[in-house]
């Protein structure tokens, strides 16, 4: 059964004064099944992040519909949107987006506190997860005191702590060195293996090679997609590279 | 090359006009007030106002005081601006500019701000000076002159004061940029705090210092008659104030963080939606804004204390003026039988001038005697010689019926009682219970004073006799000095009773048989009373001898009204400036927090919670300094009251009530500005919502 369904989504930006129109997404259709790990690739400006924002109900589509678990996101009332986002989605960003005013631990606790979880239950959830992600020792530190890799693991921990239906990741390895990138992708693999559905936007072929399916977006449309099937990471990496070259060459 | 710096500076100001326009406007207002105060001080027409010389001096002092305040504000605002511009300096530095190039740009920017601020201030000052002057003339009385005059001294002083202030601002910017890694400037500002034992220790020290400061202030004696009072209490007050300043900073910088950390350690408190966000944000910000809030607290203390003191001075002075001149004027006549027609004419004149007589007190058969105290003899002697040295007493006599009718006070004297009203401060010895008047013994009954009895001669003794006043005069004439001695508790009556004085008294009695003393109370202010007095002198001519102190009161009112007028203007601007600086604080923090709230929304924080946290933080950061300032101000009561008392003013107004009133007014002003600032803040942090 499809967890996420995107139907004929179109997004056009127009400038305030001149009225010039820019088509970010022309007609996007895709589905993501429960437990799937899908990567979206494309050039800069191809509309990847816009698509992610529309899926997360942070931006409205000009036309088209997005269904999560059968619920049309458009039907959710404005005042319920924050709660919907908090419960249904986990977010992971290139720049980590940890709050400087919170310790690493409090950054992770934030979605649980906002969700009104009992104080006594919060650490019962956070501590085992932090331990699993290897950041238990840095929970009392502030974001500016830890490395980029640790920050991204903390951000990842925050994204999944609420057990979201869908984990949305926007260039999660973009600001990491190769070692930290490898560690994070292994973490993604583990999270995915535990049943988490992941939708990741990335430029990195290496990152995409960890996914079970890769979608290529070009000119605001899903241009092509490749499935992992029984391929190993390395083989899938090569296949993605080939597809990418075809996509770029066909320009 | 120089043009490049100028271009960059102009572009930078233009690009940041959202903050620079209100900034220059605020600085301009400061310059305007400074110009007005200086011009009031230098303008020769000020001297022609009632109490003009004193007022001119006060205006000059006011200008110095306001200059110091505005300098603090300007530096405070510039600190925010420098912080806001930190990122730009970082970019310029990355692009290859050295520190000395940045300094050149900053100097040019400061020059532009100084010149534009001072020009705006001087222009505003010239325009509004006339308005203030007219207000003063209305207040103090004087000739209205509509000519627009520009004071070159004030123009020059305002201009140079700006150059001086911006010189200091540049020095601070120089130190700030030198101390910090320019490229990493922005990041260094976002560093938070760590809970530590040192913070706890410093917080405890802060509390102890504050308690010591309060104890010292509370130990200032309330009695101003103590020798060296001013010197001792001023030294104590200065020490206490310095300790309060240190304690305030310690508590705002370290105490607040320690307290927040304590709350954060309580999971049941901390893991609540609003608390979680607010405590984390406040805790993080206190290290950076603790100093600012401490400064606001100290400045608010100054504002509230000065306001309350002025109000105490104002209300007590009003009361003191009432007591100082408890009647409008006194008129004596020895031709009481002919006084009727004069009084009728006067009554018509008052009607024509819309003036009303509140009450006329007529003392029948008034009888004035000097009773002098001779310290060397430690005794009272009586004399008719006004050139005698010593403390003069007048003994006045009135029959009970007249007394009751003019004062409205029931005396209920028995036939063997003699009412006595006199001022306590010159009472020598104790009052005899009985007085012996040539074989007739009267029981003395002390009567309460009220405004109609406490007339011209504050040191008078008024005797209220239940029968015909002439009988009392007979007793008096036959006993002379013994009579007075008995009243005043000096019992050795046989030592001094010269016959010549008896004769003189008898003569006086004969000549004043038809005398009356009228005490007039006119409704309205002192100006009206003085007008009524002048009318009476015109109507009565030489028929009456008149006396008034109202004219002195009118002059006194002029000076103190002017002082209060000036102080209110300066304080109002002072409070507005504080509010403006708070507005800036929120505005700049909003600009820094845009990404912060973007993330908040992404992790599921709704707009209602964002609004709630912003308003709660605003209320805490505004209310806390004012409430602490209010407590500081309350502890300064003893010193303030002492100072007012040393000015010979009986303090009748409640300092505590007035401090609370000042605090409430300040809170209302701050909250209004705070709400506006929070709305702007929310507009800024939510501005990028659509681009998430």
Task: Tell me what you see in this structure.
The complex is a heterodimer of chains A (251) and B (692). Chain A has helices spanning 48-55, 78-88, 104-114, 119-132, 148-160, 178-193, 205-208, 233-249, and strands spanning 2-14, 21-33, 37-42, 63-68, 71-72, 89-93, 166-170, 197-201, 213-218, 221-227. With 251 residues, chain A is an alpha/beta fold. In chain A, helix 3 crosses helix 4, helix 3 packs parallel to helix 5 (148-160) and helix 5 runs parallel beside helix 6 (178-193). Chain A is globular. Chain A starts with a strand and ends with a helix. The model of chain A has no long low-confidence stretch (mean pLDDT 85). Chain B has three domains: 1-189, no CATH class; 266-324 and 550-692, no CATH class; 329-549, no CATH class. Chain B has helices at residues 2-15, 17-42, 44-47, 52-94, 99-140, 152-179, 185-189, 197-218, 229-265, 267-270, 273-324, 339-352, 400-407, 469-479, 481-488, 499-511, 526-540, 550-592, 594-602, 607-635, 637-646, 655-686; strands at residues 329-333, 357-364, 370-374, 379-383, 395-399, 417-422, 434-437, 440-446, 461-465, 516-522, 545-547. Chain B is elongated, with a radius of gyration of 35 Å. Chain B starts with a helix and ends in a 6-residue tail after the last helix. The chains are: A alpha/beta (251), B alpha+beta (692). Chains A and B meet through helix 2, helix 3 and helix 4 of A and helix 10, helix 11, helix 19 and helix 20 of B.
